[in-house]
Design goal:
four-stranded mixed beta sheet, 17 helices, single chain, 27-stranded mixed beta sheet
């Protein structure tokens, strides 16, 4: 039973409890609603004073009821009164029981959200636009740290960043970089574990997107990357490529997948898988002309494992490689002119390197790859497929006075599976030679010893006329006709070379010796030797064996081949009786295939009449046939020849119809005669980087030369028509028309026509 003295106490106790609860609720309400407003006003008012940057905040949430805390609509400008945004975000929020964290010394944050963050970063040298913030309030870095801090535990769970954007420009970068749609996720960051796993993705404003993950474990010194770069636009790397080479354009896109595990403390921990896909690559030279490109490059690295010393490529594909290579008499070529090379000399040694700064993206990438592989040596390697398809190479050599031009098309190289277990690696290669000839080759090597090689090669229907520029310059004889077929088998065993080569040349025909050639050559009697070496069918068949020790530094292959061919020619020329006997043979079938003119010849002479008379006889004997006369002049060559002749005449003070002695003077004048070159330098100083013939065209004017050559072609055509008409050939039996690529391949050269026969309608 309650005593009278106890009755009043309980209401008083309840009253105090109620008052305390009301005070607590009011305090929490103040924290939740009024304090954020005061804090927002206080930060905005004093931010410039604190950090020299204006901060604005839409609102704050400090809610002790829901345990949610956040900053919303925050913007911080650049310093010194700038209105440009330095940092901003739409939301940074988290949930945490701060009272429990304070009680247990275990701070746990969940649902960490960062929405639409933006950062503008600039760098000049080692200074950033936030360097002043890092220096604010800098105290003694050697101050004694609180040893109790290690007892504090913390964790952040369910971390998400979305809609991020970063603008970064620097004196190191060639162009600003903008990252858009930045998103990142991490399930857990905690003081109780040294491992952190992130999912990351972003897009590049200049083209490309990255998705993947990143792991770092500081206790075990491990890191890992699993990322995919998609549709990365290569043009954004052009400024970095221009550090290495003279180029005006870089086109194409790249996909890259990378799965890498490594340790910065253990060199045997490296394990990599990667897939590279490059599409529509194109690089120009400094003048904007195409230098190299590919339709598609695909490389799949299946395994690179340092622990097991294993290297496996599952696929390497280069599709549609297209490049041009030019070379000049001074030893330079299109690539040495394009690359920015730096030569340094130390004592007797000279070192040539690419000139690019260490901050160049390509240099840093190369350094990273070199760092990854510096201790890696593969004891086991495998390549399932190596393929180069639809390759195309245009080769131009301006070393001879008459430029050499050649086209390699449909280049195709394919391998069998290559590994250290099987005994051999097999390759098949093929190519089209200047639109007419064909090359096929097979070769195999020992993956354990690259010095052991077996190779076979076949060349068919190779038009030797295409090599006229070299024949003139290095053999002093124009190469007018000829088709070459070649088969060869080569074996290299422990450095010993054994090569067997069969060469079959049909319809070979050289012109008269020219005095314009390389001064260092030995001039062989090629016209005489050709007639002597031909068999009854008009063919020349040679067996050329080559043997030697490749480990002998004095052993050279090409001097041996040259000596064999030279001996054959000299020995043939020592037996001229055979040539006399052939004077009674039938006319060569070449006379039924083409009629050729001199570079500036306008009317018919004996050689042309001979060819046309044989054509007339055939048309008379075969009334069922008609013929198309297809022009086979090399337009560029003819224009250059005509222009060179005219400029020579001007240099010598000659005009009009030339006498025999004047013609000899013109023909004997070498385009590289010092006085003539000096004349070109005086008349056309802006063309010194071109060949002499090209300079002559430029001096006279391309259009003037083009018209004169066209007029000369019309004169030759009228002369041919007149001869056929005089012989009684109806104009319905012949026609002049442009030839197809197949009809003219192997015949392009001096002015003239190829006879293409068909049935008469």
């Amino acid at each position: 039973m309650t005593t009278p003295a106890e009755a009043p106490r309980r209401p008083k106790w309840k009253r105090r409890l109620l008052i305390g609860g009301i005070v607590l609720v009011l305090a929490l309400c103040v924290v939740a609603f009024f304090l954020p407003y005061l804090l927002k006003r206080y930060i905005e008012k004093h931010s410039v004073e604190w950090i020299d940057r204006q901060i604005t905040i839409d609102y704050l949430i400090l809610n002790p009821f829901t345990f949610k805390y956040g900053l919303y609509g925050v913007k911080c400008t650049e310093p010194k009164g700038s209105t440009e945004t330095f940092v901003s975000w739409k939301e940074i929020s988290t949930r945490s029981n701060l009272w429990k964290g304070f009680q247990e010394n275990n701070w746990r944050f969940t649902a960490v959200r960062i929405v639409d963050p933006y950062v503008h970063l600039t760098q000049q040298g080692d200074r950033f636009n936030f360097s002043d913030l890092m220096e604010l309030g800098g105290g003694d870095s050697t101050a004694v740290q609180d040893t109790t801090a290690s007892d504090v535990r913390f964790s952040m769970e369910d971390i998400r960043i979305s809609g991020g954007r970063i603008d970064y420009d620097s004196d190191v970068l060639k162009a600003p970089v903008t990252i858009e749609d930045l998103r990142a996720e991490c399930t857990l960051i905690t003081s109780e574990s040294a491992r952190m796993d992130f999912d990351l993705g972003f897009a590049l404003a200049s083209g490309g997107a990255l998705d993947g993950g990143f792991m770092i474990d500081t206790d075990r010194s491990l890191y890992a990357i699993d990322a995919r770069l998609k549709a990365f636009a290569l043009p954004q790397l052009l400024p970095y490529l221009q550090d290495f080479m003279q180029t005006t354009a870089l086109e194409g896109s790249v996909d890259l997948g990378l799965d890498l595990h490594d340790s910065w403390a253990d060199t045997t921990a490296l394990a990599v898988r990667a897939a590279l896909d490059v599409r529509a690559l194109d690089i120009t030279d400094g003048a904007g002309a195409h230098l190299i490109g590919t339709e598609h490059i695909e490389v799949k690295l299946d395994t690179l494992n340092a622990a097991s010393s294993t290297f496996k490529l599952s696929r390497v594909l280069v599709d549609g490689l297209d490049t041009r290579y030019q070379q000049w008499a001074d030893g330079s070529n299109s690539w040495t002119k394009a690359l920015k090379l730096e030569t340094t000399t130390s004592g007797d040694s000279t070192v040539t390197t690419l000139n690019a700064s260490e901050s160049n993206v390509f240099v840093m990438l190369a350094d990273y790859i070199r760092m990854l592989g510096q201790d890696f040596v593969a004891n086991q390697y495998t390549a399932d497929s190596l393929v180069l398809s639809k390759g195309h190479v245009v080769f131009e050599d301006f070393t001879p006075e008459k430029p050499f031009r050649y086209d390699l098309a449909q280049v195709d190289i394919r391998s069998s599976r290559i590994n250290t277990v099987s005994g051999t690696a097999d390759f098949l290669a093929s190519a089209q030679l200047n639109g007419r000839g064909g090359l096929k080759s097979s070769f195999r090597f020992d993956p354990k010893n690259f010095a052991n090689v077996q190779a076979e090669m076949t060349v068919t229907d190779l038009a030797l006329q295409d090599f006229d520029a070299y024949s003139r310059w290095y053999a002093a004889h124009p190469l007018q006709e000829g088709v070459l077929n070649y088969t060869g088998a080569t074996t290299i065993r422990d450095g010993r070379l054994d090569s067997r080569n069969n060469i079959l040349v049909s319809r070979l025909k050289f012109g008269k010796k020219t005095d314009v050639h390389d001064t260092g050559i030995y001039v062989l009697p090629l016209r005489l030797a050709t007639g002597l070496l031909k068999d009854v069918k008009g063919d020349i068949e040679l067996e050329v064996p080559v043997q030697g020790d490749l480990k002998d530094p004095t052993f050279k292959v090409w001097p041996i081949v040259w000596q064999v061919l030279k001996n054959l020619v000299v020995k043939g020329a020592s037996a001229p009786v055979r040539l006399v006997a052939r004077a009674f043979a039938d006319v060569d079938e070449d006379d039924l295939e083409t009629v050729r003119f001199g570079a500036t010849q306008l009317s018919l002479e004996k050689p042309q009449r001979k060819s046309l008379d044989m054509l007339v006889k055939l048309l008379q004997d075969k009334p069922e046939l008609s013929v198309a006369l297809v022009p086979i002049a090399q337009p560029e060559q003819v224009r250059e020849d005509w222009a060179a002749l005219q400029v020579k005449k001007k240099f010598l003070g000659l005009s009009g119809t030339l006498s025999g002695s004047d013609s000899s003077k013109v023909m004997d004048l070498a385009l590289r005669d010092e006085a003539f070159v000096a004349y070109l330098n005086e008349q056309s100083p802006g063309t010194k980087d071109r060949s002499e013939r090209q300079r002559c065209v430029a001096l006279l004017g391309a259009e003037v030369v083009k018209k004169a050559v066209a007029d000369a072609e019309n004169s030759r055509q009228r002369a041919v028509i007149a001869h056929l008409k005089e012989a009684g050939i109806s104009d319905k039996r012949y026609t002049f028309r442009a030839g197809t690529k197949e009809e003219t391949a192997g015949f392009i050269g001096d002015p003239g026509y190829r006879f293409v026969f068909d049935t008469a309608d």
